[in-house]
């Protein structure tokens, strides 16, 4: 996944999964 896709997917359930996964990986996400 690219950063742009992360931003686009920053909606709904996908956002929750992405944020959760990113947190586990130690990645800072912009909400």
UniProtKB/TrEMBL annotation:
SUPFAM superfamilies referenced in this protein's UniProt entry, alphabetically: PreATP-grasp domain (SSF52440)
Residue ranges of domain Biotin carboxylase-like N-terminal in the record: 3-29
Listed InterPro entries: BC-like_N, PreATP-grasp_dom_sf
Pfam families linked: Biotin_carb_N (PF00289)
Name of the featured protein: Biotin carboxylase-like N-terminal domain-containing protein
Superkingdom field: Bacteria
Species for this entry: Pseudosulfitobacter pseudonitzschiae
Entry coiled-coil feature ranges: none
